[in-house]
Amino acid sequence: MGGCPAISIVLPFRDAAATLADCVDSIAGQTWADYELIAIDDGSSDASPAQARERAERDPRILLLRPGRIGLVAALGLGLEQARAPLIARMDADDVMLPRRLEMQQRYLAAHPDVALVGSRVELFSDAPIRAGYREYLRWQNRCCTPEQIAQNIYVESPLAHPSVTFRRDVVVAAGGYRDGDFPEDYELWLRLHRAGHRLAKVPAVLLRWREHGTRLSRSDPRYARAAFDRLRAQYLMDEPALRAAAEVVVWGAGYRTRQRVKLLLERGVQPVAWIDVDPRKIGQRIWGLPVRDPEWLVRLPRPFVLVYVASHGAREQIAARLDAYGYRLGVDYLAVG
Predict the structure, then answer these.
(1) Reduced to 3 DSSP states, what percent helix, strand and coil does the chain have, rounded to the nearest 5?
(2) 181 phi and psi, to 5 degrees?
(3) Strand locations in the chain, DSSP E?
(4) Pairing state of beta strands 96-97 and 199-211?
(5) With 90 as the cut, is the pLDDT of residue 42 above it?
(6) Domain check: are 174 and 314 in the same one?
(7) Which residues are CB-contacts of 171 (< 8 A; sequence separation ≥ 6)?
(8) How many helices (H) and strands (E) does the chain have?
(9) How far apart are CA 53 and CA 12, in angstroms?
């Protein structure tokens, strides 16, 4: 292979014979041709390594690595080690790049040296019906584009589709790269970069077709279960400056599921002074010794810091509008938490 490329594409795969050709074809069709593709076979037992080898023999930009079954996080780490470019583009073998993805993300990062990582909007495709909740999540994610929007919503859900991102290799390596554990490795990296003060952004265009299917790791691996996300959010919330500086903390939402998630903060030392709820049957009660208050109770000084633990996207937007009308500022006086 020749000189240092502008972008290294890191593509771990395992048993991807059904989709790998479409994925690699979409990479070969990019308008930005100055890249290398590092394809890492994570112990496949099907024809996908042979497919990748055949492509590598025809295209010198493709490097095939076969370390055996090492797991996704180790494969990502190996890709970072082998990458020669200053920019790393992530890709998954079951997804498809739109033709201008690399070009638009390279140009964005060149024009915004203060941004460490840029994703894109994505569109879902599947051979089976896509669940309404997943479509709603994608609509929310595609609305979070600016660094400010991503920072303000990063505790709601993962605001970036992992195979859509391109990032500065030196920043991610300095931050410790991908970490292995009982958590989603991509979301943990976004939270760690956010905590370190790095700006994350998104090109406001659809640049990736994201395949939805029942065998995705996010559907089958406990690292991507709701409980794993909840533990991770609680861990990083404790380092949020606005929460650490708050004299009083209240939680909007007093339902059973909210209380279970709030337990994770209580275990880490957060002591709310009240619950906020709109259900008249709950207002006036005490839960865990704390009073349940009507939202109007928040119209007071000094303002408490509000953690909005409401999962419904529509309800969360209504709460945000109400807090804004009370003079609360997102990221300063309140945060939305998934």
Answers:
(1) 40, 20, 40
(2) 175, -170
(3) 7-13, 35-41, 62-65, 87-90, 96-97, 115-125, 166-168, 199-211, 249-252, 274-276, 286-287, 290-293, 305-308, 334-336
(4) antiparallel
(5) yes
(6) no
(7) 116, 117, 193, 198
(8) 13, 14
(9) 14
Instruction: Quote the pLDDT of residue 216.
Output: 58
Neighbours of 36 (CB within 10 A): 22
What mean pLDDT do residues 295-304 have?
A: 96
Q: Who contacts 128 (Cβ-Cβ below 8 Å, separation ≥6)?
A: 212, 213, 214
Does the pTM of the predicted model rise above 0.85? Answer: yes
Strands of the 35-41 sheet, one edge to the other? 62-65, 35-41, 7-13, 87-90, 166-168, 115-125, 199-211, 96-97
Task: Give CA separation, 181 vs 157, 196, 236, in Å.
Answer: 18, 20, 15
Beta bridge partners of 208: 97, 122
Tens-digit pLDDT profile for residues 155-177: 999 999 999 999 999 999 999 99
In whole angstroms, what is the distance from residue 306 CA to residue 14 CA?
43
In a domain, 50, yes or no: yes
Query: Does one domain contain both 221 and 259?
Result: no
CATH of the domain at 19: 3.90.550.10
Last residue of a domain, one of 191, 207, 231: 231
The CATH number given to whatever domain includes residue 320 is 3.40.50.720
For residue 38, give Cα distances in angstroms to 30, 57, 182, 205, 260: 16, 13, 26, 25, 42
Pairwise CA distance, residues 213 & 116, whole Å: 30
For residue 25, the surrounding DSSP H or E stretch is helix 20-28
- Indicate the number of domains in the chain: 2
CA dihedral 237, 239, 242, 247 (to 10 degrees): 90
Amino acid at 248: E
252 exposure class (CB count in 10 Å sphere: 0-12, 13-18, 19+): buried
